[in-house]
Amino acid sequence: MNERLADVFEKLFDFSTTVHLLGYDFVQQALLAGALLGLLAGVLGPLIISRQMSFAVHGTSELSLTGASAALLAGISVGVGAILGSVVAAVLFGLLGSRARDRDSVIGVILSFGLGLSVLFMWLYPGRTGTSFSLLVGQIVGVGTSGLTLLLACSVVVLIVLAIVYRPLLFASTDPEVALARGVPVRALTVIFAVLIGVAAALGVQIVGALLVLALLITPAASAVRLTASPLRATILATIFAEVAAVGGILLSLAPGVPVSSFVTTISFVIYLACRVVGTRRERRAGRRLAPA
Amino acid sequence: MTPAVSLRGARLAFGERTLWSGLELDVEPGEFVAILGPNGSGKTSLLKVLLGQLRLTEGEAKIAGTPARAGNSAVGYIPQQKTIEAGVTLRGRDLIGLGVDGHQWGVGLRGRRTRRRIVDNVVVEVGAERFVDAPLGTMSGGEQQRLRVAQALVGDPTVLLCDEPLLSLDLANQSLVAGLIDRRRRSHDTAVLFVTHEINPILPLVDRVLYLVDGRFRVGPPGEVMTSRVLSELYRTDVEVLHVRGRLVVIGTGDAVDALGSAGGHHPAEDRP
């Protein structure tokens, strides 16, 4: 067995190290950041699934990498750069592709160009390449107090906006034709939701990295909708799953010192598999019951 | 009495192409009007005008005395039955609930009790008790459309706008859904504008027909409009209307769907400008 891997397994159950590390400020900050992200992911996720926007979230988070690398190069706050990058991307996706079919290709086009730019920015960056690598796979322990303040402020804004637009947004996301007929501003909500996703994705990029944001924004919600069709229950379940993955992933990664993202993605994937199995069994049972005798 | 729907000198054009012009129509409360015509004649666009989603090029459109606008609570809307995408997190109950207050800002937790009561009442009205708590994606087309009727009725509309609500339903469900709409307009004096390819399932319910062809139109009771002479004038070709076993069969319009006298489940995106 790979020596490093053996070391991981040994340390995974080294609870005293975990407890010791929990005493540090930066660890506590990381946990708080993870919990905030889990909450955002839980409430946004089911709407993302209903709107079939998984690919848009993926594109948005990768483009937040472009913003972050541009900020790194320009010497301004990486967090602000990441948010700007993903919000611009999300609004572009929202405006250019209002139909799902359009959107798919628009995202592909913008995504590839943006990633090309970020490769250029990272190459131009004279500092340590480790800093830019951390944007790809996440480096939560580097959040810091100022990063945490930004995270907290953004999360509060996202939650407040969501609380205001939630019901029409649910209407527009699940039943757009009738929502439009009832006078719901479907197009405006598309843009607002895109901005919310942009902010959430940018925050996720700093914690689990651009490549793995889907593990928190999509997977917990995708798991939840296997179990229930009720919007409220789906939101609650998605939040619980996202919290378990985010906070649990950070806790497990402490002692072995493995990148947080591997644990976060593994936990959320295991939850997803379990929900699929349970959901399929339930459907079968329901199918038997409803089948005409 | 104020007409439920009123169109005066209405013209709708997209660029050079005029869909219809000089349209005059008053629909009384409780009246059932079928809107017929071939693909692209502007049937769905007429509904969009009344929903406030399209603006008339000329003339005026009023709902219950006020100009047509988006989000008018006097209007209920029933769309075509569609396949529900997997992953849409709605139960039947949630779909109807969105009809109650889905257009209002906020999370909607506070109005939960009222919403539940309104939904429970309408569920009994459309006979959906058995499947209202099931996920939308697991329902049959007929079940979905009954919920659609319920969703449109909870706003207590004075006008029901129906865009091919029976399309792709089997005969039993067609008459069930049409019956629900008919019962409502009789009990509540709700006016019904019913866009359809196929008049037969609703023929006994229809008070008047608005038949649109290439910008020409004719309004009147089905017995006066659905005749060989009138339809030949509208289509400007020899059209024959046959009465076969209590059904109307229209032959010679060049429209495959009408020639068969029954709308098949296949006519994608009709009337889209």
What does this protein look like?
The complex is a heterodimer of chains A (293) and B (273). Chain A has 293 residues and is mostly helical. Chain A is 84% helix and 0% strand. Chain A has helices at residues 3-12, 15-22, 25-50, 54-74, 78-96, 100-124, 129-137, 144-174, 176-181, 186-208, 214-217, 219-227, 231-254, 260-290. In chain A, helix 4 crosses helix 10, helix 12 crosses helix 13 and helix 13 packs antiparallel against helix 14 (260-290). Chain B is of the alpha/beta class and 273 residues long. In chain B, the strands form 3 sheets. A 6-stranded mixed sheet of chain B has the order 6-7-8-3-9-10, with helices on both faces. A 4-stranded antiparallel sheet of chain B has the order 2-1-4-5, with helices on one face. Chain B has a two-stranded antiparallel sheet with strand order 11-12. In chain B, helix 2 (92-101) packs parallel to helix 4, helix 3 (112-126) crosses helix 4 and helix 4 (141-153) packs parallel to helix 5 (171-188). Chain B is globular. The A-B interface holds A 46, 49-50, 52, 163-168, 170-171, 174-175, 177-184, 222, 225, 228-231, 234, 283, 286, 290 and B 51-53, 69-72, 75, 77, 79, 85, 87-91, 94-95, 98-99, 101-108, 134-138, 148, 151, 155, 161.
- Major sheet description of chain A: none
User: Percent helix among the residues of chain A?
Assistant: over 70%
Q: Which secondary-structure class do the elements of chain A indicate?
A: mainly alpha
Fraction in helix of chain B: 25-40%
Work out the oligomeric state of the chains in this entry.
heterodimer
Any idea what the shape of chain B is? globular
The pLDDT mean of chain A sits at: 85
In which order are the strands of the major sheet of chain B placed? Answer: 6-7-8-3-9-10
Write the layout of secondary structure elements.
The complex is a heterodimer of chains A (293) and B (273).
Chain A: H1 3-12, H2 15-22, H3 25-50, H4 54-74, H5 78-96, H6 100-124, H7 129-137, H8 144-174, H9 176-181, H10 186-208, H11 214-217, H12 219-227, H13 231-254, H14 260-290
Helix pairs in contact in A: 3-8, 3-10, 3-12, 3-13, 4-5, 4-6, 4-10, 5-6, 5-10, 7-10, 8-10, 12-13, 12-14, 13-14
Chain B: E1 5-14, E2 17-27, E3 32-36, H1 43-50, E4 58-63, E5 66-67, E6 75-78, H2 92-101, H3 112-126, H4 141-153, E7 159-163, H5 171-188, E8 191-195, E9 208-213, E10 216-220, H6 222-225, H7 228-235, E11 240-244, E12 247-251, H8 256-260
Parallel strand pairs in B: 3-8, 3-9, 6-7, 7-8
Antiparallel strand pairs in B: 1-2, 1-4, 4-5, 9-10, 11-12
